[in-house]
């Protein structure tokens, strides 16, 4: 706000020039300020309401997108008769059915351990060792005076990232060298060989004994034997992953996951109802307090609500024509006395329909011309970078920005008006001061004349 103070009152008139100028400027400014406040508040009120409705439409879009994929209703549930033998998970591509699985043997990682102890203080003469990891041979140099810990470190340095790990096991008798494969399977076996050096190094290698053989996992699935280098099988049955735990038998049953499919539809129902509710809140009118909402009577909101309801009505009709009516599928709008256009899902009916005819439900909801994509096209028309709600919000934001620009111009205009008032009052004060001076002079002259008579 401009400063119109003089630092003193009217010298000639005694008037509060600063206060008078501020009051006059405030009176001149009030109509424009009130108009700008109304425009700004109305725009921000609508922006907030549009944001709430847009958020609800975004949630509806997310729920619909989850149903558009060709495999959206193909989730699988898996049950194993013996969890101690194996655990199983299934993907959407896993064929449903029962699989008789027998774990004949688990995959193991090769492990060697010396059977002769080595004292902590013992050192070895210079030499070379050879470590075999599968088809790869690694050379290990042993410097003169190396301890068992030094030999371990040399092996690990040569075998870093190559699939072998050396370690030392300390026992009452002394230290024992251990050599282990990082991976399970027969193709990942390891071994330690003497290449050159003294008898002490040769004796160390000779003392190494195989404690765990390198073996592949062997599994029988419905009588067909499968081998694998590790204990997780992912390619025996499409989409079926088996984690082997112990030898034994287990029956794995793969079936359609009705609960997952029901959640897809229930999430849509919830999001659709929330979108309608958001529009209802944004357009509601409080008759008791005579207070409209931000978008009461708004044509765009009426259009969006009407389009959603109309499209849903058509789609429910299409489902009924495919034999998936409310009695069969359990999906319908609320009836009397709460017929507000919102959806309800009878989960028991849906579960029964999904268990009986999943292919028909999948075909009805998914695909380019399915239920989900058709309604999704309508929703996309309102949100996103080019959606109707987005464009309108951008327009309202420009209004708010324009109000700020107009306020800046108003400030400049009012400052000029204030300065003009200030100049006028200063001139008036000067005139009054002159008039007071003249009046005082005339009074003195008249008094002087009267004294001479």
Automatic annotation (TrEMBL):
Residues 214-437 form the Flagellar hook-associated protein 2 C-terminal domain. Residues 13-109 form the Flagellar hook-associated protein 2 N-terminal domain. Keywords: Bacterial flagellum, Cell projection, Cilium, Coiled coil, Flagellum, Secreted. The keyword Coiled coil applies. Homopentamer. GO terms for biological process: bacterial-type flagellum-dependent cell motility; cell adhesion. Required for morphogenesis and for the elongation of the flagellar filament by facilitating polymerization of the flagellin monomers at the tip of growing filament. Forms a capping structure, which prevents flagellin subunits (transported through the central channel of the flagellum) from leaking out without polymerization at the distal end. This is Flagellar hook-associated protein 2. PANTHER family: FLAGELLAR CAP/ASSEMBLY PROTEIN FLID, FLAGELLAR HOOK-ASSOCIATED PROTEIN 2. It comes from the Bacteria. It is found in: Secreted; Bacterial flagellum. One of its GO terms (cellular component) is bacterial-type flagellum filament cap. InterPro entries: Flagellin_hook_IN_motif, FliD, FliD_C, FliD_N.
